[in-house]
Automatic annotation (TrEMBL):
Domain LysM: from-to ranges: 28-71, 88-131
Pfam family membership, one: NLPC_P60
GO biological process, one term: proteolysis
CDD domains given in the database record: LysM
Gene Ontology molecular function terms on file: cysteine-type peptidase activity
Family: Belongs to the peptidase C40 family.
Location of the NlpC/P60 domain: 164-283
Name used for this protein in its record: Peptidoglycan endopeptidase LytE
Keyword Repeat assigned: yes
Keywords from the UniProt entry: Hydrolase, Protease, Repeat, Signal, Thiol protease
Location of region: Disordered: 132-168
Organism: Sediminibacillus halophilus
Ranges of compositional bias, category Low complexity: 132-146
Signal sequence interval, chain numbering: 1-27
Length: 283
């Protein structure tokens, strides 16, 4: 009788361990669906965009349908949260955006806005921001963000045509606005300037980051020599020294941008733009 009990206990323990292992494996990876972003995946698996980028060797934010993303077991997320919780405030520096600050501290833009009562992405140099909150407010904000994310995904799926990857979604959205007039400081379909165009199109395609200048986008991006559709293309010395203009590379040696003549498609080989070309970047 004792031997039988020991055998039953051993079998039961083996089943439990096998079940736990299987669950862990199943939860450690995720196949990207159309409309997904690193941010929405990080919210779903209780981790951060930074952790997902590090684990999967992703230098920017572009991901593709059917791509398998390793989500980890939550340990790295906990470490990140513990590390970021040591700093509860952050003083905004020149060139900062909510997206960049959130990435550095392992929190979402939605949380930063909630904790600091911000109604927009606008922040100013010298401003002190809360970069951590109580667990209850953080959870509430996270739940709220998840609902907003789901809503945005549904809207995006209905309004943005994605041709196989997020880069195509950016280009398709950008092309919709060809002919829109140029407006200094504009960031809506009624009128764009170059950086406002990048901000609006990226937000519509699910790659939202704070409104900032062409120069700051250049500094924040990962430089690439073989651009893909949706990458940023930068120009210098167009109306001032340094990086002064930005657009979306659209493939086939074309880029779409908000020039002084309005939103248009232009050849990279155009003599004027080619003479001011500065390089490509990936967010």
């Amino acid at each position: 009788m004792r031997k039988s009990n020991k055998t039953l206990f051993s079998v039961a323990a083996t089943v439990v361990l096998a079940s736990a292992f299987t669950t862990s494996v199943e939860a450690s990876s995720y196949k990207v669906q159309s409309g997904d972003t690193l941010w929405s995946i990080s919210q779903k698996y209780n981790t951060t965009v930074q952790n997902l980028q590090s684990t999967n060797n992703i230098s920017g934010t572009i991901i593709y349908p059917n791509q398998v993303i390793e989500t980890g077991d939550g340990e790295s997320s906990s470490k990140s949260s513990a590390s970021s919780s040591s700093a509860t405030t952050y003083k905004v520096k020149s060139g900062d955006t909510l997206w960049a600050i959130g990435k550095d501290h392992g929190v979402s833009v939605s949380n930063l806005k909630s904790w600091n009562n911000l109604s927009s992405d606008l922040i100013v140099t010298g401003q002190t921001l809360k970069v951590s909150g109580s667990s209850s407010s953080s959870q509430a904000s996270s739940n709220s963000s998840e609902k907003v994310s789901e809503k945005e995904t549904k809207v995006k799926s209905a309004s943005v045509s994605t041709s196989g990857n997020n880069g195509s979604a950016l280009v398709n959205e950008a092309k919709k606005h060809v002919g829109t007039p140029y407006v200094w400081g504009g960031a809506s379909p009624s009128g764009f300037d170059c950086s406002g165009f990048i901000y609006y199109v990226s937000k519509q395609a699910g790659n939202s980051f704070g409104r900032t200048s062409a120069a700051n986008l250049y500094n924040q991006s990962t430089k690439v020599s073989n651009p893909q559709p949706g990458d940023l293309i930068f120009f210098k010395g167009t109306y001032k020294s340094g990086i002064s203009h930005v657009g979306f590379y659209a493939g086939n040696n074309q880029f779409v941008h908000a020039s002084s003549s309005g939103v248009q498609m232009t050849s990279v080989s155009n003599p004027y733009w080619n003479s001011h070309f500065a390089g490509y970047g990936r967010m």
